[in-house]
What we know:
The chain has a domain of 70 residues. It is built from five helices and no strands.
Amino acid sequence: MSTEQCVETTCGENSLNILTPEQNDTKNKTLKRTPFSKFKKVHSHFKSPLQVTETAKVDPEKEVAELQEKKEQLDLEIAQLEAEGYRVEELEHHIDKLHEYNDIKDIGQSLLGRIAALRGTTTRDLYSHFGLELDD
């Protein structure tokens, strides 16, 4: 007897209780996914944490005015920094150096992790072995 026939009829003593997808869906509707949950709203619908309400919409003219005001504040800060002797090129150079430093530090952290794994120890122990401080 084929499996398809066993679905509709009993196939002797060793029969399997095989359900069609439709029967399985009907059976599962009576079962809950988490019957013993201590949380009351386990079976509620999903609500996004980023919900925009109708009252949250900003008037475009008001938004433009706020952005212009912010631009003026930033222009004042730039002028103040330039008056103190800072240059945009110098700041960009410092930012590039910080990116380079962070890349090198990430590689060092990765190497310390691999060495620690090979030695069967922690990276904390390797810091003291190589004379590094935990803040480095």
